[in-house]
Write a structure and sequence with these properties.
Chain A is α/β, with parallel strands linked by helices and about 280 residues long. Chain A has 12 helices and 8 strands. Helix content of chain A is about 45%, strand content about 10%. In chain A, the strands form 2 sheets. Chain A has a 4-stranded parallel β-sheet with strand order 2-1-3-4. The model of chain B is unreliable at about 425-435 and about 540-545 (pLDDT under 50). Classes of the chains: A alpha/beta (about 280), B mainly alpha (about 550).
């Protein structure tokens, strides 16, 4: 039977990382997963530091839409994932917020209720599809290429809210990379922030945080960084929302997205995967 | 009183001068970094060069095809919004047909018809048909607006356009119905075309017209003998029928004339038709003169914008970008489709700043006359809440590259495209209403949140922001653990201006590692929310530091 999800690409994906979108769709298609493209709105993460209620309403609207469509939400962005999970948590905890949000949603005939499933791409690949099935599809194993799994904060912590994996010692990402034939390295800063969150307020700090991670991964022997989040990848590859920004570049360790790496290992055509795949093939 | 031709010529002159002025503004408006150091002349030169390149390339054929499909037929709108398309086509082409074949009939008729007489069929019928098409289009437009899921604020310009078209068309229909009824016009026509020498003939003709052509009868209760009617028909056929079809074909104005008949009997000696004619004529001249200064101008700007888009990279050089943006501002019809698909539209329900919505941000950019050093706090808030998801650009039926416009204005509002944060910018307070939604989770106000804190400094030790600094005290003012301590001491305000708050990357390590389950990161989020809230209601917290 075909599995289906309501696809939540998040705002930045289409304009700034369309290759992540293409690669994710291609990989999931190969596992016979259908993605529903009902139009959704911003998850609320970018406005979370400004206004809690606005962020929660935005997230809740997406959850309520998923409930209406009747499918679990699937997002390839860890910040979107974290925000959707945070909203579900706080709406359950705080009745003022819940009453306000449901009052606003009622104008569109929508309603938030607890228990609407939200999945990150990593969980869909590892838990829903399963590593055994993925391993069977690998056509071009990564020849034990030393890779660094960059976890990303918002899908990992707070652990009891977002529930992706053990927040202090996660393995989900490494397991997936091993299944694709890579050799994930153990690096001390693997659970640290990429720095994107402060890129507009404090670009120096953002660059510093990123560079520390790159240095740490390289010191641990990694030759490639793998991300599973739109924001993290934009940070590591130096993609800016405003073309005028001159300060800050990407990191000096090549970074690819998880769907690009997996898609390549599965033998999917390069044109479905994006430019970054060249930095992978150059290493093999 | 100047002659109608003089008045119309003045209106036309105002219109043409206005169009020229607007086009000059496209070459002067300083939107985006590229505009710095670009003179009017250089921008004009770049525009002319792009035109020349396009005209001399094979792209011209693609542009011609695109202009037919997109500009004239609005094919892209038909595919996505059939009802909007129908309404727009009805109003636009119905109105255009009336302008060309009715308002300008002195010039257009000889070109198209050998035997044009406005009071004969099919012209009588066609004129009513066009009016009906326009009115139906207006009705659909108004009803559809009421049913849109997201209520976007309406601008005066939208109403002016709808109202101007409605006044012109309705006044025309009413005018025609009073002309059908008018006994005075009948008398004038008799004098001009028949010669009124025999009162018997005139009476016979008038009886015939009252019975068959809808004119007011000479008096109420005259019973016309059969012979007189026959004489009237004969006179009608020899003097009138060449130029007059039966007005029943005017399916709007004839039934209206039956409704107006009692009123017109009372006003039979007044030239109501002349007053209506003046209203109709002045409304038309006013609309013409207002064209460059109102939403009517999209008739010029939107096709230009669609064409510039089809021209591709040739028309997107840095020297042309400021002009493209200024053109885009004029090409917006405020249709609101962008806002219906806006990713951050739900946020507008909580933060009542209309410039969050693209359809409202664009007029704000236009009104602000953007320049690379703009300071507009309201617009800045809206601009930085936008996530640049690009959906508005995908949906815009006028083909505006809104994404580019938002990127450029962001940069104009905050050089380097950096979001302003409260306490760091010097600007006026926002005047929009205060949020009614729950402001916070109340974590920072409840002693329970912190009383487990034992000041063990785990939060500070695991913080990557602290780790990245050689001098945390100097770089951050306060460490996470110190902020928690201020909370314990109920000194929340002391923490609102510290740099740690704005450098926090929200990685939640502090919270995850806290042995006492203090929600450190959630509290930092909450403090930022409070700082923003204070920034909105009382102006930014300038210089607040610990």
């Amino acid at each position: 039977m075909q599995t289906a999800y309501l696809y939540f690409p998040g705002c930045k994906l289409t304009p700034f990382l369309p290759q992540y979108d293409r690669a994710t769709r291609a990989v999931l298609r190969a596992f016979d997963i259908h993605l529903d493209d009902t139009e959704l709105n911003c998850c609320g993460y970018p406005v979370r530091h400004r206004n809690l209620a606005a962020a929660m309403l935005a997230a809740a609207r997406n959850l309520a839409m998923a409930d209406r469509v009747g499918l679990p939400l699937l997002t390839p962005c860890q910040c979107c994932y974290g925000q959707l999970k945070q909203a579900a948590y706080w709406l359950g905890e705080n009745s003022d917020l819940r009453i306000f949000v449901n009052h606003e949603l009622a104008a569109e005939g929508l309603h938030w209720r607890p228990g609407i499933p939200v999945r990150h791409l990593l969980s869909v690949l590892v838990d829903d599809i399963g590593l055994a099935k993925i391993q069977k599809r690998i056509r071009r194993p990564l020849q034990t290429l030393p890779v660094a799994a960059h976890y990303g904060c918002h899908a990992l912590r707070p652990g009891h809210v977002v529930q992706l994996d053990n927040p202090l010692a996660p393995t989900i990402f490494e397991n997936l990379l091993s299944a694709a034939g890579g050799a994930p390295v153990a690096w001390p800063l693997r659970l640290e922030c990429c720095g994107h969150a402060v890129r507009s307020q404090n670009p120096t700090l953002a660059a510093e945080l990123m560079q520390r991670k790159c240095d740490d991964a390289r010191a641990a022997g990694a030759r490639l960084l793998v991300t599973a989040c739109t924001y993290c990848q934009m940070q590591f590859t130096g993609i800016y929302e405003t073309p005028y920004v001159s300060e800050g570049r990407g990191g000096d360790l090549p970074a690819v997205l998880v769907s690009q790496l997996l898609g390549w290992a599965m033998g999917l055509p390069d044109d479905q995967l994006g430019e970054e795949i060249k930095s992978l093939t150059a290493l093999l | 009183m100047p002659s109608p031709n003089t008045i119309a010529s003045i209106a036309l002159a105002i219109c043409l001068a206005g169009v020229l002025w607007r086009i000059c503004r496209w070459l002067r408006s300083p939107i985006g970094l590229e505009s710095e150091g670009l003179s009017f002349g250089r921008r004009l030169g770049a525009a002319l060069q792009a035109c020349r390149k396009v005209l001399c390339s094979r792209r011209i054929f693609r542009m011609a095809a695109a202009s037919l499909w997109e500009t004239l037929l609005l094919g892209h709108l038909l595919q996505r919004h059939p009802w909007r398309w129908a309404a727009h086509m009805a109003v636009c082409y119905g109105f255009l047909a009336l302008v060309v074949f009715h308002a300008l009939d002195d010039w257009s008729a000889p070109l198209f018809f050998a035997d044009y007489v406005p009071t004969r069929n099919p012209f009588l019928w066609l004129r009513n048909l066009m009016a009906a098409v326009v009115l139906a289009g207006l009705l659909v437009a108004v009803l559809r607006r009421r049913q849109a899921p997201l209520k976007i604020p309406r601008a005066r310009g939208d109403r002016f356009l709808l109202l101007a078209v409605a006044v012109l068309v309705i006044s025309g229909v009413v005018l025609e119905s009073t002309q059908i009824l008018s006994p005075v016009i009948f008398q004038e026509m008799v004098e001009d075309y028949m010669g009124a020498d025999d009162p018997g003939d005139v009476a016979a003709l008038q009886s015939y017209w009252a019975a068959e052509m809808g004119t007011l009868p000479p008096s109420h209760d005259t019973i016309v003998p059969e012979g007189v009617m026959a004489a009237g028909r004969e006179l009608h056929e020899s003097y009138c029928a060449d130029c007059h079809s039966r007005p029943q074909a005017a399916f709007l104005s004839y039934p209206l004339s039956r409704l107006l008949k009692p009123a017109m009997i009372a006003l039979r000696d007044h030239r109501v038709d002349l007053w209506l004619w003046r209203l109709h004529f002045w409304a038309a001249c006013l609309a013409l003169a207002c064209l460059p200064f109102s939403k009517f101008f999209h008739l010029v700007a939107t096709p230009f914008n669609l064409l510039a888009r089809t021209a591709g990279p040739v028309a997107a050089t840095p020297a042309l970008q400021p002009m493209r943006r200024a053109l885009a501002l004029d090409a917006c019809t405020h249709c609101g489709i962008c806002s219906q698909h806006c990713s951050v539209a739900p946020i507008y329900r909580v933060i009542p700043n209309p410039t969050i919505l693209p359809s409202e941000k664009l007029p704000a950019v236009k009104h602000d006359r953007m320049s690379p050093h703009s300071t507009n706090e309201v617009l800045a808030e809206g601009s930085f809440i936008c996530t640049l998801c690009g959906r508005c650009t995908q949906w815009c039926p006028s083909g505006i590259d809104l994404q580019d416009l938002w990127q450029a204005t962001r940069n104009d509002l905050a050089p380097g495209g950096r979001a302003p944060i409260p306490g760091r910018s010097a600007a006026a307070p926002l005047s929009s209403p205060v949020v009614t939604a729950p402001v916070s989770l109340g974590l920072s106000d409840r002693p329970e949140t912190f009383w487990a804190c034992v000041q063990c400094t785990t939060c500070t030790s695991v913080c990557p922001v602290v780790a990245a600094s050689d001098d945390p005290r100097g770089d951050l003012d306060l460490t996470p653990q110190q902020i928690m301590n201020l909370m314990r001491l109920q000194l929340k305000d002391q923490a609102l201006g510290c740099r740690m708050l704005w450098d926090c990357v929200t990685c939640y390590k502090c919270q995850e590692h806290c042995p006492q389950d203090v929600k450190v990161a959630d509290i930092l989020y909450e403090l930022r929310n409070i700082a923003w809230q204070q920034g909105r209601s009382e102006g930014p917290a300038n210089g607040r530091s610990v």
